[in-house]
Structure to design on (492 residues):
């Protein structure tokens, strides 16, 4: 309330009570003032009351909530359902304008403030996650695949005669389809097997550049976060190649923002070579509903250009979800989640190592992958991988989600391109395997329940006798192995 209204309240109740209530309000407003002034994530998370107060103040600034507003345009923020209106906090105009997703809307001052604040908070998160050199970013109301399309189309505008995208293979359909959707021609670079690990074929990339000509390449699209046994691309070396050959470099950092190892790779790549833009998913890194991504980079002009390539206005929902979540967590809360994830990756690795050894399997040694793990599935009389695939189905029916079972021999056609042994990131990976990931928000209970259910599946499906190695202590805690597995290196 303004001072005049507070004074009027004093005529109804004791002035001391009004003053006490006013001081509480001032405390809330000071937090909001700090946010608007510094545009950085508060260290301590806010409670729901302060967040809702701010959202209410912002929504009042949008024209659809003006008292006596008379709208005669084709888009006036009218909402038929009260439930929908409440769900969106009456922020109905979206973000951006027809020519720029980051532009301010005259009809929606409050929504525009929220959009600008969210982008600032996202950049703050990116910086303290380890990519200090990042200079600009914005939230896009599209998931990772379509956001990669937006980036490639913008790069294509700068290189109108180019049509190829060099793409070290990763068996995730949306990554490949994003190149096709952008109207470009993918050049698949097969990975190299080093031990258990699939690594980038740098010589293959260099050879293709020489064969196709650097001027004919729109960009090289690399990947950081990926399913084992594939490891992050050698993006430092690739960024150096891109700098030398003057080729744009686009990084698919889908769920890599949560890993200090992967953010360090991006930071170093920008320091020693060329990184034009990197894209990360909102749901995978910040635990919000699917539907948004962040485009970030080191050249403000390019990031601004990508924003202007987005046609029309955009949904505010992903920005709103991220805004609320970040304020709820605060920087302290988010950093705590990152640290917990890192520790639970080691715990998952050790627990899976014990389980695998007990049933005659072993953990795949992919020390460069800091999020995903794999264990072998060597089953008797399973040349076609049917028993291995059955393990995945049995886990799913036991309410275990997120695991992947990959067996050799299963090909897939994606947008007209045939991938041999699709899912394994390789034409000839030597064994069947199962993967699991320690991503942000995972709990120790998740790990314990998963390993226990995996043991039950192994007991049911495997024909060979298990070794006499205990898995569970009397108190229900999973025993740690006598030695640490090499995956500890992945979370430095």
């Amino acid at each position: 309330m303004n001072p005049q209204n507070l004074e009027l309240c004093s005529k109804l109740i004791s002035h001391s009570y009004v003053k006490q209530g006013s001081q509480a309000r001032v405390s809330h407003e000071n937090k909001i003032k700090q946010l608007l002034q510094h545009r950085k994530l508060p260290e301590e998370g806010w409670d729901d009351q302060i967040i809702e107060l701010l959202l209410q103040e912002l929504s009042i600034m949008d024209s659809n909530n003006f008292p006596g507003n008379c709208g005669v345009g084709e888009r006036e923020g009218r909402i038929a359902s009260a439930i929908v209106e409440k769900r969106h906090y009456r922020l109905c105009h979206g973000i951006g304008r027809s020519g720029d997703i980051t532009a301010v809307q005259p009809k929606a001052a409050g929504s525009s403030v929220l959009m600008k604040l969210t982008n600032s908070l996202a950049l703050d998160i990116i910086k303290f996650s380890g990519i200090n050199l990042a200079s600009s970013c914005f939230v896009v109301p599209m998931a990772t695949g379509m956001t990669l399309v937006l980036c490639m189309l913008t790069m294509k505008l700068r290189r109108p005669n180019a049509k190829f995208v060099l793409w070290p293979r990763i068996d995730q359909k949306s990554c490949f389809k994003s190149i096709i959707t952008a109207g470009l021609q993918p050049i698949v670079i097969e990975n190299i097997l080093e031990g258990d690990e699939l690594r980038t074929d740098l010589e293959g990339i260099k050879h293709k550049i020489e064969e196709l000509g650097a001027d004919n390449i729109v960009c090289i699209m690399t990947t950081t976060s990926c399913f084992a046994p594939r490891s992050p691309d050698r993006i430092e070396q690739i960024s150096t190649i891109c700098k030398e050959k003057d080729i744009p470099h686009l990084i698919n950092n889908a769920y890599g923002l949560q890993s200090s190892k992967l953010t360090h790779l991006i930071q170093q790549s920008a320091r020693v070579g060329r990184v034009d833009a990197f894209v990360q998913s909102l749901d995978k890194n910040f635990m919000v509903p699917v539907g948004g991504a962040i485009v970030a980079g080191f050249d403000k002009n390019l990031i601004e250009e990508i924003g202007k390539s987005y046609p029309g206005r955009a949904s505010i929902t992903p920005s709103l979800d991220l805004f609320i979540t970040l304020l709820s967590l605060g920087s302290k809360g988010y950093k705590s989640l990152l640290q917990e994830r890192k520790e639970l990756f080691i715990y998952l690795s050790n627990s899976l190592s014990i389980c695998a050894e007990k049933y005659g399997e072993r953990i795949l040694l992919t020390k460069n992958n800091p999020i995903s793990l794999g264990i072998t599935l060597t089953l008797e009389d399973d040349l076609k991988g049917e028993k291995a695939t059955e393990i995945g189905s049995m886990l799913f029916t036991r309410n275990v989600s997120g695991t992947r079972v990959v067996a050799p021999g299963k090909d897939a056609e994606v947008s007209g391109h045939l991938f041999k042994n699709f899912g394994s990131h390789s034409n000839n990976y030597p064994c069947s395997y199962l993967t699991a990931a320690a991503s942000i928000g995972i709990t120790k209970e998740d790990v314990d329940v998963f390993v226990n259910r995996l043991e039950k599946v192994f007991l049911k499906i495997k024909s060979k006798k298990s070794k006499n190695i205990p898995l569970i202590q009397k108190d229900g805690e999973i025993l740690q192995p006598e030695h640490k597995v090499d995956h500890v290196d992945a979370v430095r």
